Amino acid sequence: MELFLSICLGLGLSASCGFRVFLPMLAANIAAMNGWISPGVNFEWLATWPAFLVLLTATIFEIGGYYIPFIDNLLDTIATPAAVIAGTLLTTSFVAIENPVLHWGLGLIIGGGTAGVVQAGTGLLRLLSSKTTAGIGNPVVSTAENVAAFGFSGLAIFLPLIAFVLVVLLMLWLLKRLFSMRKS
Predict the structure, then answer these.
(1) Rounded to whole angstroms, how far apart are CA atoms 165 and 72?
(2) Locate the DUF4126 domain: which residues (predicted)?
(3) Taking the model in full, what pTM does it have?
C-alpha cells in the first residue's frame, strides 16, 4: 500500500509539473522540510534550505514570466522538456524501488509522461489563447495554471488517492482532446 501511495504522490506532483515546473518541486520541498512527506534515499537534498531558496527563486521567475504575453509562449517551449525532467525527478524521489532501472524507468514513464502530456495540453491552450485574443487572454490562462499547479500539488501531498483519481481523469480528457485535434 505504501508503494501505491508513493506512486499517487509522484503522479500528482508530476501532473502539477505540467502546469508549472518549479511550483510542485517547491511544494514538495516545503512538505519534506516539515516532515509531511519523506523523499527517498539520495533525494534528501529536496528537504534542504538551499533547495528551498533555489526553488522559490525559480518559482517566482517562472510565474512572473507567464504573465508577459508571448514570453509565456517562449517559456512553454522550454517548459516542455523541463516538465518531463521535473516530473521524472519528483516521481523517482518518492517511489521506493530497489532496482535502479525499474526505479528510474517508472519515474520516467509515469512522472515524465504525465508531466509531458499535461504540459502539451497547457501549451496548446496558451497557443489557442494567443491566436484568439492576441495574447490578452493569456494572463487568465496563466492564473488558471498557477491555481491548478498549486491545487494538484496540495492534493498530491495531503490526499494522494484523490490526486491520483483526478490526474487519471485529467489525463484521459487531455489525451482525448489531443487525439481529436490530431484527427481534425
Answers:
(1) 29
(2) 7-175
(3) 0.92
